[in-house]
Amino acid sequence: MDTNPLLTMTRLVDRTPGVSGPEIVRNLVPPPQFADATFDSYRPDPNFPSQAETVARLRNFGSAKKVKSGGFFSKKKVVNEDADKGVYLDGGFGVGKTHMLAALWHQAQGPKYFGTFIEYTALVGALGYAAAVEALKGASLICIDEFELDDPGDTMIMTRLLGALTAGGTRIAATSNTPPNALGEGRFAAADFLREIQALASNFVTIRIDGTDYRQRDLDGHARVTPDAEFEDAVATQVAAGKTVTVDEFDELMAHLAKIHPSSYVRLLDGIDVIALRNVTEFDDQTGALRLVAFIDRVYDAQIPIIASGVPLDQVFGGGMLNGGYRKKYLRSMSRMNALTSELA
């Protein structure tokens, strides 16, 4: 009888979760690692003053309100110059933008929502545009993490959605690695959608955050690789510690992810403590590479360590992908994979 312990492991490819529109709305809250994020718990790097300055500005934004001045002909005046617009946190990966966004969300009064860009577009896809607006309208604050446009359709959907919500008094806060007036550059014919992109930019006051990637401060080299000869023992050690471990062939998992909407990736990870990937290979197509980016984002949100054999995960974006329009996405994902593969070292 074959006693290979990997044959009895849970596999991600055996899971086919789905997520409904109402479920997406219920889950529009910060990921577990930022469940208790506050401005006080954020640690600005003293070498980059813009980090502390952003915290102060966001505190002010979170408490800013419109008030009426006295007099019959008076108009509403704004206590804070940013109060009539949203804030857009523009900076490199690993400078704490998501932490600050979550802290702002926690400070705000409800109703309020926090989700990734892909979750909001998935909500429109699940409910339809009108029903999505109805579900979100009346919110005091909507936080959008990882605001990155990959196609013209998303550009127009988010332009319409943000326009409808801000017209009703909702304020928007977003993060991205790309300034709002540059969204889409190098990805699609941005000139054809310049009006939509400019309309998006007009909704925000951009706040630039400088800094270095905090995830890499204590890490050296590439994502950690577990040699084939040590792979089974590494998995067995985690199982013996009481962890729920999934074991998948990398190529099989990537093919499986193609059958699931990225908004459901978070459900794919329910109850998982460690992910083990065998025989990681380099991508030769950008669609698969972007699918991995979306998956790793959810794994990182859930803080699930990864055991991987084969090609180092931070080296899977080959064929000149790092020189294209998705460069910042790939670099962010590489940073996260380096951190996730180092957690069990």
TrEMBL record:
Keywords of this entry: ATP-binding, Cell cycle, Cell division, Nucleotide-binding
Molecular-function annotations in GO: ATP binding; ATP hydrolysis activity
Protein name: Cell division protein ZapE
InterPro entries: ATPase_AFG1-like, P-loop_NTPase
GO cellular component terms, A-Z: cytoplasm
Species: Lysinibacter cavernae
Single biological process term from Gene Ontology: cell division
SUPFAM superfamilies: P-loop containing nucleoside triphosphate hydrolases
UniProt xrefs under Pfam families: AFG1_ATPase (PF03969)
